[in-house]
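S.,

Sequence below, as promised.
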Amino acid sequence: MTLYLIGLGLANPEDITVRGLKTLKSCDVVYLENYTSILQKNVQELENLYGKKVILADREQIEQKADELLDKAKKGDVALLVVGDPMCATTHVDLLLRAKEKGVQTQILHNASIVSAIGAVGLEVYKYGKITSIPFHHANVSTPVDVYKMNASMGLHTLFLLDLDPKSGKFLGIQEAAEYLISKGVDSKTLAIGCARIGADDQKIHVSELGKLHEFSFGNAPFCVVIPGKMHFMEEQALSMWK
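The prediction came back faster than expected:
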């Protein structure tokens, strides 16, 4: 009788670990958290691959109706599948705390996340500063730019995660993110990296001036933007692959 938080990796259902798949198959109930990120496959394809019924769980299910999930974990083994790594979203920390209060045993099975996979662009991962998100409704939001300025002052790279709502099919695009940053005072000539579907076979990475990212086609979500800080010459060479 355990709640398992199982990371799926970034893009393909086959990216699940051998241990994660073995655990999932032994569970009585399987949920797929469906709001912090998305896979490039639909639920039916997951069910065919895993051989289990998969229940979509939106934000309300996880944050406001967590007791329903936790009550099931008191009676049997429950899997919560999470795109990326389960512990890269604060909402899952909250779920673990609720589980502890209810006396529900938990176990985390980690996997790749955007935090590590962003290394694909060629910048050194340990030189990233605080990660920030750009929300859909950002007209009066300054936090992402404040975080960027703080990181830049220390020569650190900044990763901007772009908002998404898979249930409604809404995804904040790279062009809109760039326009937001420029509107808040970031120079349009600032070097920037637009990324789509990092970790997928068809991932897209383009390096350009922030104000020119709209010239590239990125395809489907999820999206993120990186603004480099102070770069080593090897990082500069690596970025040239994407220009």
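The chain has a mean pLDDT of 94.

Coffee later?
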